[in-house]
Amino acid sequence: MRALIQRVKRASVTIDGVLHSSTGAGMLVLLGVEVGDTEADLEWLAGKVARLRIFDDEQGVMNRDVVDVSGDIMVVSQFTLCASTKKGNRPSYIAAAREEEAVPMYESFKRRMGELTGCDVACGVFGADMAVELINDGPVTIWIDSRNRY
Is 78 in the active site? Predict the structure, then answer.
């Protein structure tokens, strides 16, 4: 399971020209579910993201997590995070979990983020053609892969 976390001033998802969800300052989590991801991957990744200290303290040091700053959270599914570019120039998405595996993991990840942070978690729609807008704050962008945790 892969997450690309961006500290944002604001973020939104629009589908078919209609605003679906939006947030203020906090984090946007783009989530990719891979074939074979487990509940252990999900639990580890959600815990890591929820506790990620990417927000400034009084001294301007990134020492605070999203809860400490009363930040917003948005989670958007993005299978392209599972792309392999080892061969040629056309990415391969064979490692991305199929919908029947990915949707339950995506839904569980969103739910777990809410449980761990006490935040309402805004989201996109799995499989939809979404326009995701954000203003990256910093910029701060962090990549986490549950298979690289050991």
Answer: yes
SS (H, E, C) the chain: CEEEEEEEEEEEEEECCEEEEEECCEEEEEEECECCCCHHHHHHHHHHHHCCCCEECCCCCEEECCCCCCCEEEEEECHHHHCECCCCCCCECCCECCHHHHHHHHHHHHHHHHHHHCCCEEECCCCCCEEEEEEEEEEEEEEEEHHHCC
* Choice among 6, 23, 78, 117 that is catalytic: 78
Confidence at residue 150, expressed as pLDDT on a 0 to 100 scale = 78
| List 6, 79, 109, 117, catalytic entry | 79
- The 10s digit of each residue's pLDDT in 19-33 is 999 999 999 999 999
Domain 2-148 has CATH 3.50.80.10: yes
User: Is residue 59 annotated as part of the catalytic site, yes or no?
Assistant: no
As a whole-number percent, the residues of the chain with pLDDT over 70 amount to 100
Residue ranges of domains in the chain? 2-148
Is residue 79 annotated as part of the catalytic site, yes or no?
yes
Q: Is the pTM of this model over 0.90?
A: yes
